[in-house]
């Protein structure tokens, strides 16, 4: 008697859009605002990965005239982990003087997107003290922005894994990036943000695969790295250094955690060699420490 008749269910009101998507890591699987007809090979949809940022360096057009006209030169990818903090690979930003971060970008050749991109200047960067540009150990950096980005349908933050948590082998994750050297008209390679789905590869398997390459049979995979990919024809060279590798959060459809940062690869997914990524979970303590050190709460990217 204490059961409701099945023909009279209680249906809760649908959650409002805002409420549903509080917190980090929400991917817009169908894009934002408009549908792309004929989804071309590997193109991300507009706003699909709202944490994806482009890192630009500002250079004078003419070296002899440093105060003259300036160019935004594309350096690599990164991810927004807080409205004012970007996570990226150290080897792209270690030597650059003036950096700018662009969030909410999608097609670099047009400004017709329904939600605009947002640019911020980098006022402070933290490079891991053990970063080694020879072998790329600890290839991780944080960029702190002059002003927070405004959260928008095409601009959001990604979640980070709890400390030392590694994505399980076989998990299917996404790497994304533009893979091009310049923004705008001079740009070569990709104009529209690309994505590639890659499986996480177990560390030992990865090390064995890498030993078959020119790295040789004594190669040791350093603890600051993880691996993904190695499926023929799914080529991760498209991703750019510094770009995020995001994996689905179990039991939360549409929500993602950044397990890796694109670091390096041998060849291009030919002969099943996985790509190598910075292991974010392994460096979570370092990230929290540097973020908190600048008075920012790590709770934003914690799920």
Give a structural overview.
It is built from 4 helices and 12 strands, in the order αβββαβββββαββββα. It has helices spanning 17-20, 90-93, 203-211, 284-293, and strands at residues 52-60, 70-82, 85-88, 99-103, 118-127, 141-145, 172-177, 194-201, 225-228, 244-248, 256-264, 275-279. The chain folds into 2 domains: 52-157 and 289-293, Beta Barrel (Thrombin, subunit H), CATH 2.40.10; 171-281, Thrombin, subunit H (Beta Barrel), CATH 2.40.10. The strands form 2 sheets. The protein has a 6-stranded antiparallel beta barrel. It has a 6-stranded antiparallel barrel with strand order 7-8-9-12-11-10. The longest helix is centred in the last third of the chain and has 10 residues, at 284-293. By secondary structure, it is mainly beta. Strand 10 and strand 11 form a beta hairpin. It starts with 16 loop residues before the first helix and ends in a 10-residue tail after the last helix. Its main location: secreted. Heterodimer. Belongs to the peptidase S1 family. Residues 1-24 are annotated as: Disordered. It holds the Pfam family Trypsin.
């Amino acid at each position: 008697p204490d059961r409701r008749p099945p023909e009279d269910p209680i249906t809760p009101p649908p959650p409002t859009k805002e409420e549903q998507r509080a917190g980090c890591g929400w991917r817009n699987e169908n894009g934002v605002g408009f549908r792309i007809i004929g989804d071309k090979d590997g193109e991300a949809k507009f706003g699909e990965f709202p944490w994806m940022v482009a890192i630009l360096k500002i250079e004078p057009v003419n070296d002899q005239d440093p105060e003259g006209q300036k160019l935004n030169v594309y350096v690599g990818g990164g991810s927004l982990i807080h409205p004012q903090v970007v996570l990226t690979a150290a080897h792209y930003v270690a030597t650059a003087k003036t950096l700018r971060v662009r969030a909410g970008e999608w097609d670099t050749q047009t400004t017709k997107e329904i939600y605009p991109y947002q640019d911020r200047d980098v006022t402070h960067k933290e490079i891991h003290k053990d970063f080694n540009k020879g072998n790329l150990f600890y290839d991780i950096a944080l960029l702190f922005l002059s002003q927070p980005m405004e959260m928008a349908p095409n601009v959001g933050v990604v979640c980070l894994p709890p400390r030392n948590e590694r994505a399980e082998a076989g998990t299917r994750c996404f790497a994304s990036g533009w893979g091009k050297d310049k923004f705008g008209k001079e740009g070569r390679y990709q104009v529209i943000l690309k994505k590639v789905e890659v499986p996480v590869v177990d560390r030992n398997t990865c090390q064995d695969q890498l030993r078959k390459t020119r790295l040789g049979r004594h190669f040791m995979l350093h603890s600051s790295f993880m691996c993904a990919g190695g499926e023929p024809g799914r080529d991760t060279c498209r991703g750019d250094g510094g770009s995020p590798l995001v994996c689905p959060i179990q039991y939360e459809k549409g929500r993602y955690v950044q397990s890796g940062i694109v670091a390096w690869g041998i060849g291009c997914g030919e002969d099943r060699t996985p790509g190598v990524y910075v292991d974010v979970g392994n460096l979570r303590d370092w990230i929290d420490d540097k973020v908190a050190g600048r008075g920012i709460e790590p709770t934003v990217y914690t799920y």
